[in-house]
Write a structure and sequence with these properties.
Low-confidence stretches: 110-147
Number of helices: 37
Mean pLDDT: 89
Distance between the termini: 96 Å
Helix content: 40-55%
Largest sheet: 8 strands, parallel, barrel
């Protein structure tokens, strides 16, 4: 029985300095070794710079169109999207938009490479013809007369294809094999990568599986008779084989994906191919290794040395992964192949860690640390030969030279390069070692796929290798001196304290020094997730019925709050702020308790509950920081000598806070803490469906230092809210809920005699998204499904109406429906659940009635299946006209309308006619279109090329206008002032007989 290692486990985001302290002492080799590395690297760099490739490669493109230039950035965006645009009108707009961003007309081509010259010529030709405003809303007629819009499109598309063709080996595996066939000499080694985004639907996953299976058979038949490792291979992406390849769906992934991966591995084994599982994002690492370990354990793979995986050196856990893979190889008595890469999604990993409020980053923040770790990992892999066959994927001449030195005289490894890159480096390497080390080999990682997939791949490669800090970019720049390229990573880092990037704060310090970021949990870190689940399960939540207040009790609460106002309003702003910060601290320390409450009373999934708790903590800290600035000191106003003028903000009195059930903790605390920090006393009336969460939140605020006299809780239904609104002694109301209730509150306030009171209302909306033909379908599908169906569609910001350009509507709707089909609907306490229950039976009945109406009035694209209980499955309906949707439907129901490209103006008019203005999503790569939509529509929150929910406190202040609310925006810099009155104090400082300050002044 093999000694199978336990599942992989390592610290998710360890401290950079600790890793550097471990790596730096062993970083330098002895002087003779370092000298040999310098000589080898110098020859390789000189070869790169001397190369004159008549066709051209990525290095030539980077020299010509650096990503630090407007032309380079415009070219990148154009390449990413143009070939997927089917209609002429949108293509014309897109080309004009991007070519207008750079100076392609006057671009002087420096390269002699055909690829670069042809691309530059085509782009310059297009830029000359398409002057700003001439397509298609301008003088399209004149354009056609001069050259013809089709010719312009053809020239630009051809430029994109010229670039793409050089970086992708073939559109089909047959074309790739033919193109990769040796013309003379040794047979080249290839690892074929079938291009494409991760699967969003079961259909996508099946298509990718079939493509992999077919490619394996085709490659295998053409593989020849060489033994491993001198045989071709294929790279497989796990996220392409399963539509929900995510940590929370682990049980399903293991059940469904492992058999598929095993099937493909068995096919590769039959042909004795190299079969590499590609690396994924950091939050999928543990899941990937679980899948790999389960597959590798199958006895049918015994005796085969071709199974392998990719490891990313920019991940801090890379060394631990190598140890784990070695343990697997030992346990199963197998030889494994390991491709060591540096990593291609660094910016995504940084952003993800910041958004999730993690303690640190799973990747290094300095590239030099990645380079240092790459060498350390290479050394470890080389020490594990022959059980591990290392494959070093790099275009860095210094890395190549270092690996050669570390490897010594023995072989048992190979280098890898991307097709279209690194030719000069590896040709020189082959020349250098032709006599002494003919066994040194390199494998070409060769992408295979359609032009549509090809260009998105190219953009990732350009981003990865085109940044100013990239070795590829620097090696191609003659202005960078050779010694700079030979500097060792350890010499750039110097000491552990400099291992982290000084300008990239830790996620917790993202908003420092003003406030801390709220603390999150990485669900992709098994230990952290298991600990959270266990803590939540252990919580006992008091779900006994809460006695509703009577009108007399509500009146008594207002009277008590009025009595407590004076003392609280005189409490220094710093003390009030400290209480709010303590509340945030208590919230985070008691996260399992509040998450349990949110799940059991509010029906929240684990992800939603954690997000809401973090938002509540952010509100406390943000308003504390804002309160210190606004209420801490009066503002001196400039004026004539002899007097002082000061402006100060003061609390208004008793504020009534009426909050909704859909965010029973975050919005409740957001309203209450805003009113409190402004110096008001508060009577808080939560939604009748979620009084227990409010009760616990109030108790926490009291514990944090808010006096009981300043904060009072009143529970009950809408009648209690109406009684509070009508009370003569209140000074203002903050409300979140329906437009209908907001109107009734507004009328009640207007009907009262006495002061005119402020109403701060945030209501709902028929929130829309516009997706044109330049948008990436996979991104649209992700963002639509998240925006429409997360939280069971019970968010004020949720997507209700999607406008999609008719030229791409079929494909996009099909992908969205397919992605929705993969969502798990059910018990919110199950970590794998994506869509939990709606709030109550009444809400379910309203939604069911709307679904029934839509089934007769609209075209049904998707209807999910809901379990018994208060569940409503996602539905997608296509309307003939946006006017069919006349009110907000507060649940997981998406309405879709197609529009012709030339009718975008009608779409904007339809959005305006609704009267709502809360959230809007825009998916487009055309900046002019985006800017025109933003300029035209008065929408509170507009999200471009992302989902449209989850506004972050202090980052995306939230609130709408029109039927969607009064403003100012919650979580924004203008919010607190609405809870206060302003007071100006003018003092005649010369009244006592003269202006002493002026008289005492020097000349």
């Amino acid at each position: 029985m093999p000694n199978i290692p336990p599942p992989f486990s390592a610290a998710y985001a360890p401290d950079d300095a600790e890793i550097a302290a471990r790596l730096l002492p062993a970083a330098h080799l002895n002087p003779p070794q370092e000298a040999r590395i310098d000589r080898t690297a110098t020859r390789l760099i000189e070869a790169i710079r001397k190369r004159d490739d008549r066709l051209g490669g990525v290095e030539d493109m980077l020299r010509e169109f650096a990503l630090s230039t407007k032309e380079g950035l415009a070219l990148m965006v154009l390449a990413e999207a143009l070939l997927r645009v089917p209609d002429a009108r949108t293509a014309d707009q897109f080309i004009e938009d991007k070519l207008g961003e750079g100076d392609f007309i006057h671009h002087e081509t420096r390269s002699t490479a055909f690829l670069v010259n042809a691309s530059a010529w085509a782009l310059g030709l297009s830029a000359r013809v398409i002057q700003p405003g001439e397509t298609p809303d301008g003088t399209i007629g004149r354009l056609v007369k001069r050259l013809g819009a089709p010719a312009v499109r053809t020239a630009t598309r051809q430029a994109m294809r010229l670039m793409g063709n050089h970086f992708v080996l073939g559109e089909t595996i047959e074309q790739a094999l033919e193109r990769g066939r040796p013309r003379s000499g040794e047979t080249p080694r290839y690892s074929f990568d079938m291009l494409g985004e991760g699967a969003r639907t079961a259909t996508d996953a099946k298509r990718y599986f079939d493509a992999y299976a077919s490619a394996i058979e085709t490659i295998g038949k053409a593989a020849g008779n060489h033994p491993l490792p001198d045989r071709p291979g294929i790279s497989v992406k796990l996220s392409a084989l399963h539509p929900r390849f995510e940590a929370i769906s682990r049980d399903r992934v293991m059940r469904e994906l492992v058999p598929q991966l095993l099937d493909l591995a068995q096919r590769a084994r039959a042909h004795d191919l190299n079969f590499t599982v590609d690396a994924e994002e950091a939050d999928r690492l543990e899941l990937s290794l679980d899948v790999i370990a389960a597959t590798l354990a199958d006895p049918s793979l015994a005796g085969w040395d071709g199974f392998g995986l990719a490891i990313q050196a920019y991940q801090k856990r890379a060394s631990a992964v190598i140890d784990y893979v070695d343990a697997l190889a030992r346990a199963h008595d197998r030889k494994l192949m390991v491709r060591l890469v540096k990593g291609a999604y660094w910016d995504t990993e940084i952003k993800r860690a910041q958004e999730r409020g993690l303690d640190g980053y799973p990747v290094f923040t300095r590239k030099t640390m990645t380079d240092l770790n790459y060498v350390a990992c290479a050394q470890k892999l080389l020490s594990l030969r022959p059980r591990i066959f290392p494959q070093f994927a790099t275009h860095n001449a210094l890395s190549v030279a270092t690996v050669l030195e570390l490897a010594g005289e023995s072989g048992g490894f190979e280098f890898q390069r991307l097709h279209g890159m690194g030719e000069a480096l590896y040709e020189q390497l082959a020349k250098d070692h032709a006599k002494n080390h003919p066994d040194i080999a390199y494998r070409t990682y060769a992408p295979v796929g359609s032009h549509r997939d090809l260009l998105a791949y190219l953009v990732r490669r350009l981003l990865e290798n085109g940044a100013n800090s990239s070795f590829v970019a620097q090696a191609a720049d003659y202005r960078v001196p050779l010694p700079a390229l030979l500097q060792r990573p350890a010499d750039a880092i110097v000491r552990p304290q400099q291992a982290a990037h000084p300008k990239i704060p830790l996620p917790c310090d993202l908003y420092a020094p003003e406030r801390r970021n709220s603390r999150g949990v990485e669900f992709g870190a098994r230990a952290a997730l298991d600990r959270l689940l266990a803590d939540v399960e252990a919580e006992t939540a008091d779900l006994k019925p809460v006695t509703e207040a009577t009108p007399d009790q509500a009146n008594a609460a207002v009277a008590a709050a009025r009595a407590g106002f004076a003392a609280w309003s005189r409490t220094p702003a710093a003390a009030r702020a400290a209480a709010l910060e303590q509340a945030a601290h208590l919230l985070e320390n008691r996260a399992p308790h509040f998450i349990a409450l949110l799940q059991r009373e509010g029906g929240k999934t684990l992800d939603d509950a954690l997000s809401e708790l973090r938002e509540a903590a952010d509100f406390c800290r943000y308003y504390a920081a804002q309160g210190r600035k606004l209420f801490g000191n009066e503002v001196a106003m400039r004026g004539p000598t002899g007097e002082s003028n000061a402006l100060a903000l003061r609390g208004r009195g008793v504020f009534v806070a009426i909050s909704p059930w859909n965010f029973p903790l975050a919005i409740f605390l957001g309203q209450v803490t805003a009113a409190l920090i402004a110096g008001n006393s508060v009577v808080a009336k939560p939604a009748e469906q979620t009084p227990r969460i409010a009760r616990e939140a109030v108790a926490l605020l009291h514990e944090a230092g808010i006096p009981a006299s300043a904060l009072h809780l009143v529970t009950g239904d809408g009648r209690i809210g109406a009684a509070l609104a009508a009370h003569p002694d209140i000074a203002g109301i903050v409300f979140t809920g329906s437009t209908e209730v907001a109107r009734s509150i507004n009328r009640a306030l207007a009907a009262k005699d006495g002061p005119i009171l402020p109403l701060i209302a945030e209501t709902g909306g028929i929130n829309t998204m516009i997706a044109d033909a330049t948008a990436l379908p996979e991104q649209v599908a992700d963002d639509v499904v998240t925006s429409a169906f997360r939280s069971a569609g019970q968010r004020c910001s949720a997507l209700r109406l999607l406008f999609v350009q008719e030229d791409v509507a079929d494909r996009m709707i099909e992908m969205i429906a397919g992605a929705a089909r993969e969502l798990k609907i059910g018990d919110a306490s199950d970590v794998a659940t994506h869509v939990g229950p709606v709030i109550d039976v009444e809400a379910k009945q309203r939604l069911d009635a709307h679904i029934a109406r839509m089934k007769t009035a609209a075209r049904l694209h998707f209807a999910g299946t809901a379990p018994e209980g208060c569940f409503v499955a996602p539905h997608i309906f296509e309307l003939t006209d946006a006017g069919q949707l006349t009110e907000e439907v507060f649940g997981p129901i998406l309405h879709v309308v197609r529009y012709p490209a030339e009718n975008l103006e009608r779409v904007l008019q339809a959005i305006e006619r609704s009267g709502y203005g809360l959230t809007l999503g825009v998916h487009s790569r055309i900046d002019d279109t985006i800017e025109a939509i933003i300029d035209r529509l008065q929408i509170g929150n507009i999200y471009v090329n992302r989902n449209m929910i989850g506004a972050v406190v202090g980052v995306q202040p939230f609130g709408g206008n029109g039927l969607s609310g009064t403003g100012p925006k919650a979580g924004g810099p203008h919010y607190l002032a609405r809870f206060a009155t302003e007071q100006t104090v003018t003092i005649n400082t010369a009244a006592a007989g003269g202006n002493a300050a002026l008289l005492a002044g020097d000349e």
